[in-house]
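Section 5: illustrative case.
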């Protein structure tokens, strides 16, 4: 292959990758904002026409969403948006507790039996930013939208900050792999929370963490699990 042909092939591969990333991002935002609801079917032909891309590009985007657990692919049924039943809620919360509670236990020991302001500052900043979105995200009767999507991201930032305080790269990496699934999880939790109640619950957790550490976080996670299963 000549240099020119090689460069052309590389450019085509780059364009294809960019197209897949673009379609994946657009579909991801529609799922996480609630525009595409639980169990909504994802159609290759429809998406290809809508986004002006090939079905191969759409298929690759769907594969990425399945890898992020935002979608489910089943034989003879195609691809659909993930929904959480009680079993899945419990399994995800158990995995979160295994990672997050252990991360806080490590951080608690790392800082000598407490969690200082400097360790909690990133989590506190996420809660403050969440509070500022309350008026735009808490509109009774409205479907979730961009404002709630940002609340989801800030909620994920809060918990990621607690995990990061552990300084444990493997736990941080494992928790980050849950990223999109946790965003979808908080979308499903929306009927049980307003932004104000979400902020209040997380500020209370920040107050308790310096004294109680992992026990406070475990109770926090058990409370949200009980709400969803109830």
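Designed sequence:
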């Amino acid at each position: 292959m000549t240099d020119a042909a090689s460069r052309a092939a590389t450019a085509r591969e780059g364009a294809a990758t960019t197209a897949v990333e673009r379609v994946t991002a657009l579909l991801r935002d529609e799922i996480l904002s609630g525009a595409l609801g639980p169990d909504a079917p994802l159609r290759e032909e429809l998406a290809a026409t809508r986004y002006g891309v090939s079905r191969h590009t759409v298929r690759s985007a769907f594969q990425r969403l399945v890898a992020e657990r935002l979608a489910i692919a089943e034989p003879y049924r195609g691809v659909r948006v993930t929904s959480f039943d009680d079993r899945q809620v419990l399994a995800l919360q158990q995995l979160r507790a295994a990672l997050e509670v252990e991360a806080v236990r490590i951080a608690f020991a790392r800082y000598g039996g407490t969690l200082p302001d400097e360790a909690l500052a990133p989590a506190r900043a996420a809660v403050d930013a969440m509070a500022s979105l309350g008026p735009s995200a808490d509109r009774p009767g409205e479907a979730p939208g961009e404002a709630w999507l940002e609340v989801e991201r800030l909620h994920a930032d809060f918990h990621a900050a607690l995990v990061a305080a552990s300084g444990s790269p493997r736990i941080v990496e494992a928790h980050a792999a849950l990223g999109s699934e946790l965003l979808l999880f908080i979308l499903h939790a929306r009927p049980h929370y307003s932004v104000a109640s979400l902020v209040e619950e997380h500020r209370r957790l920040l107050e308790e963490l310096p004294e109680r550490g992992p026990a406070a976080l475990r109770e926090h996670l058990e409370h949200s699990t009980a709400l969803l299963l109830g």
